[in-house]
Amino acid sequence: MNKTNKFLLLILLGLSLTITQFKQVKAQSNNIPSNLLEIVTKIDSAANNKDIELLAENISPEFASSDGLNSESLQEYLEKMWSKYPDLKYTTSIESWEEKQGELSAVTLTKIEGSYESGGKKFVLNSEIKANQYFSNNQLIKQDIISEKTEITSGENPPQARVNLPAKVNVGQEFDFDVILEEPVGSDIVLGGVSEEKVSPSLYLEPSSIELDALTAGGIFKRVKLPVTDNQDHWYSVILIRDGGIRMITQRVKVNE
Which interval of the chain is the signal sequence (predicted)? Predict the structure, then answer.
């Protein structure tokens, strides 16, 4: 039994701009430089108020991310997210920072929560992203995602599942991509499907669909082998649907050269 998922995966793929809550960061570490606190506070204010002009003032026109986003495509993506999720809430901590030759860098961990309604259903998002961010001349100039997981649920009883994936792999490496159902299927009909995508700017704005099959037991188990020429990070996504609800999960796998 095959079906094609019509849910856009935009909400699953790469909520990659990490935004810092000023009061929380200050409370965690009093030795964070004031200019670092100031820039992340301005970006935070712009995002929470959906102020694209203020955001543009605090992100360098030369901004570059490890995913291929530039300043223009990042702003376009964020505006789309703000439109879909009017109640997005960001909670960020700075795990470490350093300064070299006038450039500040910080490792940030951001938890993102939000929800939206579609077709009479409420979808709840939870995402966690760790990133290296770089700042110069009071602007964000560069970002590298370290790890990323996004989960969206809908309904009172979505399927319970665990995704097993390595955090990092090497080019040409083989590894398992397992989606394990944590409760018996029983007489329920559970539809499920997975996808593997190279991280790219186009997928932030035009994500692909996933083909669904009826699951008879256990979950979904795949063996993945990356080409020796493929050194891009990958998103691995799963969608599980039953009468009680929906669960969607996307995780990033870092690919080392």
Answer: 1-27
